[in-house]
Amino acid sequence: MNCSLNGNWLPFPFRKQRSLSGSSQSPRSPSSQPFLSVSVTEPVKLGNGVQAYISYRVITKTNLPEYQGPEKIVIRRYSDFVWLRDRLFEKYKGIFIPPLPEKSAVEKFRFSAEFIEMRRQGLDIFVNRVASHHELQQSEDLRTFLQADEDMMERLRSQETGIFKKKPSDLMQIFKDVQTKVSDVVLGKEKPVEESNPEYEKLKHYVFELENHLAEAQKHAYRLVKRHRELGQSLSDFGKAAKLLGACEGNALGKAFTDLGTKSELLSTKLQKEAQQLLMNFEEPLKDYVRAVQSIKATIAERANAFKQQCELAETIKLKEINLDKLMLMRSDRVGEAEHEYKELKAASEEATRRFETIVRLMNEEIVRFQEQKTIDMGIAFHDFAKGQARLANGIADAWRSLLPKLEACSSS
After folding, report:
1. Is 406 or 183 the better-scoring residue by pLDDT?
2. How far apart are CA 273 and CA 215, in angstroms?
3. Of 170, 54, 107, 115, nearest to 287 (Cα)?
4. In sequence order, what are the residues at sequence separation of 6 or more whose Cβ sits closer than 8 angstroms to the Cβ of residue 132?
5. What percent of the chain has pLDDT over 90?
6. What does the radius of gyration of the chain's CA atoms come to, in whole angstroms?
7. For 367, which of 268, 304, 339, 348 is 20 to 30 Å away at the CA?
8. 214-239, pLDDT tens digit by residue?
9. In what helix (H) or strand (E) does residue 284 lie, and over which residues does it extend?
10. Per mean pLDDT, which range of 168-182, 279-293, 385-399 is the poorest?
């Protein structure tokens, strides 16, 4: 299908120093234009065994008056970023909260240099996406995250119980329940609690299709990275064997074998470098967008919950109205109490309606921003992929071509 809606989101990778209006801005610029720049740097392993974790230096540079100064450096761990994400999700309904990089489920990979660097980059992208978002950048929780000391963050983490504390499978089940549950319509007891909005149905269909296509592309990108690494290792092994063979031979044949081995090792290095480039600039952006779509699905679940609550309150008000009319006809002494309950319920219903309408409005804005930025990011990722593959193919062809005269000389002598 054509995965296309008119829209925009947040950049991958984030351009490091930006003003809040979106233009480039240096921390030392004399301009009074407001800016907020965050860097996640210097991952360090702390602790041992199951208690071990990675800490990061988070450096904030800003000229915003609500911050403590032009520069602040704090130490944060992964769970602190989770705290920030959870708080934003709970407070900013309707906004697509940027995703966090995943945790490694395999113990032996948790502290590998490659995994640590990928996570550092992912955390840097996450916090800068938050800092660049016109709504999220005003969050008090963001300011706390960027400025509070480690003891304060530990106390705040211990108080948290949010939707993202649940296992991913639980979160997806919540979404499925909200998405598919229709009250007992057959028996006529209740009305369905799903939106019947064609544009909303189109959005949900698009999101599910996009997630499937992105996941499929990411799976094959992973295979490409693996293939490059395996071919690089095979060429390295072959190069060593060819050089040993050359050492056993003399004259031109031995020299040709040695040159062949050297070229093979050179190409092995090229392939390993290209594999790393593929991982960071192609597979990871695809994986990042898979996580971003999951964040959108969590927001859709919140919208469905808000719609359900609005409908349930509206139905309850109707029953209260009927009951109030009966009490008034009977001139019951409970009329005053019933009127008070009705007014409270009506206020709650109006608030639920405003909350639902706000979520709808924000989601409409967010999907526009998400789609526009996705178009840019995916264009860059696929362009860089094609350019890297062309460069690698030319390098391999040139390397083998340079050997042909020597090998032809040996075969004709």
Report:
1. 406
2. 24
3. 115
4. 10, 11, 14, 18, 20, 22, 36
5. 51
6. 29
7. 348
8. 999 999 999 999 999 999 999 999 99
9. helix 284-329
10. 168-182
* Both tokens assigned to 243: 């050089």
Distance CA(268)–CA(60), nearest Å, equals: 40
Phi, psi of 103 (to 5 degrees): -85, 145
Query: Is the distance from CB of 301 to CB of 215 less than 8 angstroms?
Result: no
| 337 or 73: which leads in pLDDT | 73
DSSP state letter for 57: E
**Phi, psi at residue 306, to the nearest 5°?**
-65, -40
Q: Residues 305-326: pLDDT tens digits?
A: 999 999 989 888 888 888 877 8
- Cα gap 120→10, rounded to integer Å: 18
Total number of residues shown for the chain: 413
Question: Kind and range of the H or E element at 37?
Answer: strand 36-46
Q: Tokens 């609005």 identify what position?
A: 310
Tell me what pLDDT residue 393 has: 93
Residue 332: pLDDT band with limits 50, 70, 90: confident
Cβ contact 406:251 at 8 Å: no
Q: Are 369 and 7 in contact (CB under 8 A)?
A: yes
- Of 140, 138, 160, 158, residue with least CA distance to 150: 158
